[in-house]
Design goal:
Elements lengths: L1 E3 L2 E3 L1 H14 L3 H28 L3 H30 L4
Antiparallel strand pairs: 1-2
Amino acid sequence: MLKLSGLTLSADIVMIKRNERDSLQKYIPALQLTGIGFYIALCIGGGAYAGWKLGHGNKGILLAGLVIGMILAGLGAYRLIKPFLRKTGQGE
């Protein structure tokens, strides 16, 4: 046991914290992929919303905003997924 300014730290507590940290490591890729999904949804939805607001009912501008949002979502998703592809050996 180690005593520091009234606090007691034992090896058992340190091991428990290390085990908790290790068990949370498996959730990191899932949370990163969830973030990518939110990014895609926001890009497409934001592009459609911007086209709707800027076009005032003009379907051409709405469609242009939607296409721009889809392009941004695709490019951003590729950049965010690239590290996963490198880990599996399928990336550049």
